[in-house]
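Hi all, posting the design record for the shared folder.

TITLE: backbone redesign
STEP: 1 of 1
STRUCTURE INPUT:
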């Protein structure tokens, strides 16, 4: 069963890992210059590096349909520079999963594939997709919604050890981002983690740098640029997060449920 996942950031990559473990063939799309924060667990890194492994799953950059076929034949994930997901019309996948996490629908339609799943807010099950998977932390995280929408975006990050907005690093101005510390480093409150055109990006709390934009990324003022985890467990930087794994489980449930309902043949 062929699945196209729009987006290759950390939640999309968590979804991809769970589906890959279950034998699905996966193609992922992203920007030419991805802005993923948790780069150590993002298949978008394959765009920068040519290939990238998340846990035990390999993602490889594909530049043509023939390369996609070769990559899939090796049981790897094919990663494309394809911000508009134009590959959907060429590949005719069994399912499309929109995991861009833009908090709004950027163009996904319910007739894009036999199964269309929206991840997070911005989608309405039965209107622009067949199912929505909840991404808000809490009791309903990972729940499959077959009628209606996910919880609206609050603009407040989920609480980790009592910290929400304090965890997030944001660009102080427009300019070019430069790493000073790196993902996996433990930093103190007030420590400079990066700079934007020489202006410091400082940590508001003590913790491990779990996510950080790559040097050379062009940012705008206020843009999310990193994430500090107060639990101070560097090993967590290299594995799919609890949230991404839960959302991936929801997508897997939705795919199997919709396949069982006859959206695609059971042997696909």
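Okay, here is what came back for every position:
SEQUENCE:
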């Amino acid at each position: 069963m062929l699945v196209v996942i729009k987006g290759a950031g950390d939640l999309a990559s968590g979804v991809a890992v769970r589906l890959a473990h279950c034998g699905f063939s996966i193609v992922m799309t992203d920007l030419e210059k991805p802005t993923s924060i948790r780069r150590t667990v993002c298949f978008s890194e394959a765009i920068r590096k040519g290939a990238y492994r998340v846990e035990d799953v390999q993602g490889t950059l594909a530049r043509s349909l023939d390369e996609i076929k070769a990559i899939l034949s090796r049981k790897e994930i094919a990663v494309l520079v394809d911000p508009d997901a134009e590959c959907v019309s060429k590949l005719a996948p069994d399912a499309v999963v929109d995991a861009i996490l833009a908090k709004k629908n950027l163009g996904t339609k319910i007739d894009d594939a036999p199964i269309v799943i929206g991840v997070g807010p911005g989608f309405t099950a039965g209107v622009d997709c067949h199912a929505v998977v909840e991404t808000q932390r809490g009791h309903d995280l990972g729940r499959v919604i077959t009628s209606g929408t996910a919880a609206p975006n609050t603009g407040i990050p989920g609480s980790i050890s009592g910290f929400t907005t304090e965890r997030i690093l944001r660009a102080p101005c427009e300019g070019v981002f430069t790493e000073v510390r790196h993902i996996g480093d433990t930093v103190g409150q007030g420590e400079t983690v990066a700079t934007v055109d020489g202006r410091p990006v400082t940590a508001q709390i003590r913790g491990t740098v779990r996510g950080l934009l790559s040097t050379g990324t062009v940012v705008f003022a206020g843009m999310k640029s990193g994430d500090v985890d107060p639990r101070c467990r560097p090993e967590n930087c290299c594995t799919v997060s609890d949230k991404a794994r839960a959302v991936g489980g929801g997508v897997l449930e939705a795919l199997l449920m919709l396949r069982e309902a006859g959206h695609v043949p059971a042997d696909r």
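COMMENT: The longest helix spans residues 242-260.
Let me know if anyone wants the other runs.
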